[in-house]
């Protein structure tokens, strides 16, 4: 019985010494931080005031509960923020992807459809304008040619009229040659030469007047039969001149009518070219408007992409900062919670009256 009692006393003494060493270690650990020192100071003041131990225990336990609740709220709020961050990141990345697709599709449409279409229309207008220029060139050339032809016609008619007058003079002169003198014969021969001068060598009547001159050169005009033959030849020659005048006048009228018809055709062709240009211009205007619209849309979507990218970068940076803040707060709460639990163990020890801060 004595042996058992001795063993019990030794055990109690040993336990007290262990508790004393543990308490000293906890006190030392608490003094390493401002928060721990503040709690120890509170314990010391409470011990000096002789307040109830349970009251101090309750206060520290309430502090521990507050820290646990704050830590739990911190965890909850950060999880909510993380969910918001992940959702926003997914949304912004999708917005960026959609904007990139819109920019690429729009640029593809511009490069492969609208820009080539505009070039085709511009080339078509240039081709039609070249046709118009050729048309006006033909128009101007036709006028110049017609004017030249008309001048030639008027010159030929003038020559023929002069020849007719010369023939009439020769016929009038023949009427006076009953017993012609040498001077009269010479005058008549000169009259025939004058007719020859009026008729160009390229004229179809040139051989006829040459034959008359040859005939008259070998005559003394004393034979009235010869004179009658010359008169008949001159009348035939005059009729041929008049027929030529009539034929050339008719040909000139026909040429003028053909010319005017040709000019009308050129004008109609030119007007048709202009109608074609107008139609192509309508298409070109619509194409340019579509290009402007799609270019504006492309630029806007590219601006959206840049904006979304900036927002995503800002969100990632903000979330990284908030994560650092959360980690620091969590570490602080965890540390304070551990310190509070250590302080509670000090208060719950058998004797803390000798604690000094």
Task: Determine the N-to-C terminus distance.
Answer: 45 Å
What is the 3D shape?
Answer: rod-shaped
Number-wise, the strands total: 0
Order of helices and strands: HHHHHH
Strand proportion, as a percent range, falls in under 5%
- Helix percent reads over 70%
How many DSSP H or I helices? 6
Structural class: mainly alpha
Mean pLDDT: 78
What are the low-pLDDT stretches, counting only 5+ consecutive residues below 50? 1-23, 352-357
Largest sheet: none
Indicate the radius of gyration in whole angstroms: 65 Å
How would you describe the overall organization of this protein?
- This protein is mainly α.
- Among the domains are: 25 residues; 133 residues.
- The chain is 90% helix and 0% strand.
- Helix 2 packs parallel to helix 6.
- The protein is rod-shaped.
- The relative contact order is 0.14.
- The N terminus and C terminus are likely disordered.
- Keywords: Coiled coil, Signal.
- It comes from Paramecium tetraurelia.
- This is Trichocyst matrix protein.
Lay out the secondary structure:
Elements: H1 2-30, H2 34-49, H3 53-174, H4 182-198, H5 206-217, H6 224-347
Helix pairs in contact: 1-6, 2-6, 3-4, 3-6, 4-5, 5-6
